[in-house]
Automatic annotation (TrEMBL):
Gene name linked to the record: cofC
InterPro entries linked: MobA-like_NTP_Trfase, Nucleotide-diphossugar_trans
Keyword Ribosomal protein: no
Keyword set, alphabetical order: Magnesium, Nucleotidyltransferase, Transferase
Organism in which the protein naturally occurs: Sphingomonas jeddahensis
Lineage of source species: Bacteria, Pseudomonadati, Pseudomonadota, Alphaproteobacteria, Sphingomonadales
Gene Ontology molecular function: any one: phospholactate guanylyltransferase activity
Enzyme Commission number: 2.7.7.68
Keyword Magnesium included in the entry's annotation: yes
Top-rank taxon: Bacteria
Record protein name field: 2-phospho-L-lactate guanylyltransferase
Residues annotated as domain MobA-like NTP transferase: 5-128
Enzyme class, spelled out: transferase
Length: 251
């Protein structure tokens, strides 16, 4: 199994979800008797990840990471910069996820890593809209609309080889456009942009083309469980994952 990085840095200012939960940092929101960060670290260890690093600067988050057997790393200016730093320090393969992936399960991690094809430099886990609506009815997600359906990210990435560094550099350049996919696709040139605008570009083609642009083989892995796309970006997400965690605890 690869090493893993959990992104738990703060974007600065008051986080509305942390404020809603009455804690200092989103990663420290309690859920089912554990903080969200502790749940994520626990799922990674259960999946067989040996070395887990947490990118964070808040002292309480750093302490929480240490308490649960993770190595704190200083968070950089943004998620992509933190990932670049971790890749340089921990090497590839490196699994990347986030502290607000509150429902993360070990079997999702194992399944994702096992399905990444040999020869891929970068892999990203995404879920179809239909799968998300079945698993998490009422949960509002941001969707990428492509010819092969509407997709949402699952906050799980595998930087499988050292060449993935080039993909992280691309991520840094497009991070501000993550909710505006037409701008990202537009970086590929007018041909692919037109295919996207006319609904003729598949997600797999877009990801592969982005990878080729920087010299890496990039692949999409479809999530087997739509619940993997649920993270905690807003108070309604927290309400949902709390209810789901209670149901899971009841068996």
């Amino acid at each position: 199994m690869p090493n893993a990085l959990v992104l738990a840095g703060s974007r600065g200012g008051t986080d509305p979800v942390a404020d809603y939960a009455g804690v200092s940092d989103k990663a420290l929101i309690p859920l089912g008797g554990q903080t969200m960060l502790a749940r994520v670290i626990g799922a990674l260890h259960e999946a067989g990840i040996g070395r887990v690093a947490v990118a964070a600067n808040a002292p309480a988050v750093v302490a929480e990471a240490r308490q649960h057997g993770a190595q704190p790393l200083a968070a950089a200016a943004g998620p992509s910069a933190s990932t670049a730093d971790a890749l340089a320090m921990l090497g590839a393969p490196l699994l990347v996820t986030t502290a607000d992936h509150a429902l993360l399960r070990a079997d999702w991690v194992r399944d994702f890593v096992a399905r990444v094809p040999t020869g891929a430099d970068v892999a990203v886990l995404l879920a179809r809209c239909e799968a998300i609506e079945r698993a998490a009815p009422g949960s509002r997600r941001t969707y990428l609309r492509f010819a092969d359906g509407n997709w949402s990210g699952c906050n799980l990435f595998l930087l499988a080889t050292p060449k993935a560094e080039a993909a992280v550099r691309l991520w840094q350049s497009v991070e501000r456009d993550r909710k505006r996919p037409w701008r990202i696709v537009g970086r590929l040139g007018p041909g692919l942009l037109l295919r996207y605008l006319f609904g003729r570009l598949s997600l797999a083609e877009a990801i592969a083309s982005l990878g080729r642009r920087v010299g890496v083989t990039a692949v999409v892995i479809e999530a087997s469980d739509g619940l993997a796309a649920v993270d905690v970006d807003k108070p309604s997400d927290l309400d949902f994952v709390r209810e789901r965690a209670e149901l899971d605890a009841l068996g």
